[in-house]
Design brief:
Helices cover about 40% and strands about 10% of the residues. The protein is globular, with a radius of gyration of 22 Å. It is α/β, with parallel strands linked by helices. The protein binds iron/sulfur cluster (2 copies).
């Protein structure tokens, strides 16, 4: 292997696919299964040599106190537990004692058992468990290769993770079916699964004729889904449950920059690593024209810093329509993910996002709340104080507060100052 030129960069994110696109399920919307065509006759099994190169290069080229090593698929648990035992040994070999290594692993949960969960807990893995809601919604598009439901197996995995205190997020796609039942989905996760961390991933897919499929979420329904869950969350659950998209938007209000790639102005800091060491520009662009090279020939950091990847990253910004550039919510949306920019604007401009109508509705609906949350956090108050605001506003008490009295939102500021701040940030 060619040696790395030693130039640590602060952050990049690589998602490794140790089984490539190989999976034990056959979900209808899985964009990755057809990627098996990229590697005909492959065993889709990452060698220990490639695994070690990935970990070594990731650790040696990042200068952060915490480094993430990410595993996804296909279905990474098909590699077997011993592979991940070797992963942990390799990480210990290369990481400095003071560096925290966080392994993330995205799974459908079917293979998880007590032994897996014990290992995941002991080694601080953070799990992303795919679950699309209660059984009648989960089973719409997720099933095994024979078309059978795997819902009970996923719930079993969830309970095992809770028993062994494994940290996990629920990864829920928002598709044409479950998008019509936002509160049922949210309350199922919160109340029946007793889960606290959720990632909602909109399904937008095109068929071979470039038409959106019937599984694709309708844009307005996407907005309604997010809004109804936000309204429930902001009244009852702030500080208890965490929705990645809400946090990502809020970060734009607080810092002017989100950690979520879909809400960033450019792409390029997150790449996808295939089982054989091929590195691609992004998980959503595992295609020959987005192949950056192989990590056995060039170091990951060199591939991510390459002109090809820089130009991929900038394209998100340079291809943004004027419509988006003049949008009130450009500062947080940035036109969302380029893979979803499949519409034309009313002026005939290319590259409008399929989700735009829903995104805009969500941003508009939550704007005031995001400002309040931002003010609370910037003045050292817990975000959960917003729930007091909601109760006070509901009871009509805000009308009785004098301009020099402490604001009802709990920011600790005088009412007039707090509201001036909110106006400034609008
Ligand atoms: S293409 Fe989409 S998923 Fe990939 S980095 Fe850009 S915003 Fe993120
Ligand atoms: S809300 Fe719509 S118009 Fe505004 S930036 Fe996002 S995609 Fe563009």
């Amino acid at each position: 292997m060619e040696q790395s030129i030693n130039k640590p960069i602060s952050t990049f994110h690589v998602m490794a696919k140790p089984t490539g696109a190989r999976c034990n399920l056959n979900c209808d919307y899985c964009f990755f299964l057809k990627k098996t065509d990229l590697y005909p006759n492959s065993s889709f099994c990452m060698s220990d040599e490639t695994m070690e190169a990935y970990i070594k290069q990731t650790i040696e080229t990042q200068n952060t106190p915490e480094i993430t090593i990410a595993w996804q698929g296909g279905e990474p648990t098909l590699m077997g537990l011993d592979f991940f035992r070797r992963v942990v040994a390799v990480e210990k070999k290369y990481a400095a004692k003071e560096t925290v290594i966080v392994n993330t692993l995205q799974t459908n949960g079917v293979l998880l058992d007590d032994e897996w969960c014990q290992f995941l807990h002991e080694n601080n893995f953070l799990i992303g468990l795919s679950l699309d809601g209660p059984k009648h919604l989960h089973d719409k598009f997720r099933h095994d290769k024979a078309g059978n439901s795997v819902f009970d197996q996923v719930i079993r995995a969830l309970r095992l993770m809770q028993k062994h205190k494994v940290e996990f997020n629920i990864l829920c796609t928002i598709n044409s079916e479950n998008s019509k039942h936002p509160l049922e989905v949210y309350k199922f996760f919160r109340d029946e699964c007793d889960a606290h961390y959720f990632q909602f991933i909109p399904i937008v897919e095109l068929d071979e004729n470039k038409k959106v499929t019937s599984r694709t979420v309708d844009a307005k329904q996407y907005g309604k889904f997010l809004i109804q869950i936000f309204d429930e969350w902001v009244k009852k659950d702030v500080g208890e449950t965490f929705v990645q998209f809400f946090d990502g938007v809020l970060m734009s209000y607080i810092r002017g920059f989100s950690s979520l790639c879909v809400l960033q102005p450019t792409c390029g800091q997150g790449a996808a690593l295939e089982h054989n060491g091929d590195l691609y520009s992004c998980d959503h662009f595992v295609e020959p024209s987005y192949l950056l090279g192989n990590i056995h020939q060039l170091n990951i950091v060199d591939l991510i810093s390459s002109d090809q990847q820089r130009s991929f990253g900038k394209e998100k910004q340079t291809s943004l329509s004027k419509h988006c550039q003049s949008c009130k919510f450009h500062f947080t949306c940035h036109g969302e993910c380029p893979k979803n920019r499949i519409l034309k604007t009313s002026d005939g401009e290319e590259n409008l996002n399929w989700l735009c109508a829903g995104l805009k509705a969500f941003f508009e609906h939550t704007h005031k709340h995001m400002q309040t949350l931002s003010n609370l956090l910037q003045t050292g108050r817990p975000a959960s104080d917003i729930m007091k605001t909601m109760t006070t506003e509901k009871n009509g008490q805000s009308k009785k507060i004098g301009r020099n009295e402490p604001c009802y939102c709990g920011s600790g500021l005088k009412y007039k100052k707090c509201h001036a701040l909110q106006k400034d940030s609008s």
